[in-house]
Amino acid sequence: MMSAAAIDPPSIGEGAPVLAFDVGGTDIKSAIFDANGIALGLRRTPTPALGDDPAAALIEELARLSDELRAQHPEVAPAALGFVVPGIVDADAGIGVFASNLGWRDAPLRALAAERLQLPIAFDHDVRSASWAEHQLGGARAHDDVVVLIIGTGIAGAILVGGEPYTAGGYAGEIGHSPIADGPVCACGARGCLEAVASAGAIARRYAAETGTTPDGARDVIARAAAGDTVAARIWDDALDALTMSLAQLTAMFAPEAIVIGGGLSRAGGALFDELRRRLAARLSFHRLPELLPAELQGDAGLIGAALRAREST
């Protein structure tokens, strides 16, 4: 069942027409970009159950969606296809190293897609692709040394050095799983990961566990903190401290010109950005303070990044 997309990405500019897919554990965003860079046929479709051979099943689903997009827009002849996935991704080798929510290990996704779809294939990590889109068209476009941090149910990140993604075979950028405390235990199995303390999901879960009241997401917890709820204030303060520690470590190691923050928690506005700027300045000394900027492309960034990478493959 297809659902209408509530997103309207900007034009990616003139160039070769391409197909683009942003694959998630819940849904797949798809579109065909014409020669003017306009996304046509944009929609979200549920990610199907991928069964015992998840890599092959995913490629079949992309082929089905590709056929639908081409049939709906016969005037557009795509020159390439780009798709991005979560997990550990070795984009240079075209390998999906590991994806816990999609079920593959060491899957040759780019080769499988090229064989099935008979097009040049661009393949990358979803957040790394989103960071590339933010660098090209969004919040990071004025900077070459950038960290992009997506804070939602979990926390994902990507690093650009000299305007190019730093990948380390797909293992770089796991900022959400950098240790910042002795606890709690993270879903990944490690202790004290940033994601386990400061993600929107962790903030809401912790408030529910401590009060027996289910909040309407992390932003509700933040609003309760501002209204004087002491439990909410403590949980939000812990999250801000954890984020500050992580940003301070990134600043000391990489000296980014900017840190671009997206995802649901970024919509907290000044409650997040103003506090992080203040706390980060107080924690650091001689370091170059990065600009803290909101992501501009938000949920569109992965799809746009897939389209940009597809164009580069032509």
Main sheet record: 6 strands, mixed
What's the helical proportion of residues? 25-40%
Which geometry do the CA atoms define? globular
What's the rounded overall pLDDT mean? 93
CATH architecture of the largest domain: 2-Layer Sandwich
**Overall SS class:** alpha/beta
**How many distinct beta strands?**
14
Could you please say which CATH topology of the largest domain applies here?
A: Nucleotidyltransferase, domain 5
Number of helices: 9
- Strand/helix succession: EEEEHEEEEHEHEEEHHHHEHEH
* Straight-line distance between termini: 32 Å
**At the first level of CATH, what is the class of the largest domain?**
Alpha Beta
Q: CATH superfamily of the largest domain, please?
A: ATPase, nucleotide binding domain
Strand order of the largest sheet: 1-4-3-2-5-9
Uncertain spans, ≥5 residues at pLDDT below 50? 1-6
Residue share in β-strands: 15-25%
Question: How many domains, in number, for the residues?
Answer: 2
What does the radius of gyration come to?
20 Å
Tell me what you see in this structure:
By secondary structure, this protein is of the alpha/beta class. It folds into 2 domains: 3-131 and 299-312, ATPase, nucleotide binding domain (Nucleotidyltransferase, domain 5), CATH 3.30.420; 142-295, ATPase, nucleotide binding domain (Nucleotidyltransferase, domain 5), CATH 3.30.420. The protein is 37% helix and 22% strand. It is built from 9 helices and 14 strands. It has helices at residues 54-72, 109-117, 126-137, 194-198, 200-211, 218-226, 230-254, 270-283, 301-312, and strands at residues 3-4, 18-23, 27-33, 39-46, 80-85, 88-90, 95-99, 104-107, 121-125, 146-151, 155-161, 164-165, 258-262, 291-294. It has a 6-stranded mixed β-sheet, sandwiched between helices. A 5-stranded mixed β-sheet has the order 12-11-10-13-14, with helices on both faces. A 3-stranded antiparallel β-sheet has the order 6-7-8, with no helix packed on it. α1 (54-72) packs across α2 (109-117), α3 (126-137) packs across α9 (301-312) and α5 runs antiparallel to α7. The protein is globular and about 60 Å long. The two termini are 32 Å apart. Residues 1-6 have low confidence and may be disordered. This is Glucokinase. It comes from Microbacterium murale. Keywords: Transferase.
